[in-house]
Amino acid sequence: MRLITAAQVNAARHRQPIRTTGIVTCRQRPATASGVTFVTLEDETGMINVVVWRTTAEKYRRELLGATLLTVYGHVERIETSAVPVVHLIAARLADHSSLLGNLVAQSHDFH
User: Fold this and answer.
1) Is the pTM of this model over 0.90?
2) What angle do CA 19, 21, 22 make, to 5 degrees?
3) Per-residue pLDDT, 111
4) Burial of 21 by CB count in 10 Å (0-12 exposed, 13-18 middle, 19+ buried)?
5) How distant is the alpha carbon of residue 103 from its chain centre?
6) DSSP string across 7-61
7) What is the widest separation between alpha-carbon atoms in the chain?
8) For residue 29, what pLDDT is reported?
9) 26 with 65: CB under 8 angstroms?
């Protein structure tokens, strides 16, 4: 599927198209975020911060809310205003690949 790791996402250039997957560890939709959903994915190399805009969230609602193993197709948003760059993956498409986990049980912290 040509997926890249969290470490590769965090090293990617601004606006680079990305395909990645990870275990969903957290979903957040703050009241002040105007309908944006924030998802944290984790793989063996680190964490990925995903931004899901409202239109994408509506289109992929089942995947966004139900996946344990979430694949995200999108692009990198990289802001280098400090010593540590802020890197987000802006989602354009979501896919639920939870079936690949077999019997592995993983739980996320949702909407806290």
Assistant:
1) no
2) 155
3) 59
4) buried
5) 22
6) HHHHHPPTT-EEEEEEEEEEEE--GGGTT-EEEEEEETTEEEEEEE-HHHHHHTH
7) 42
8) 86
9) no
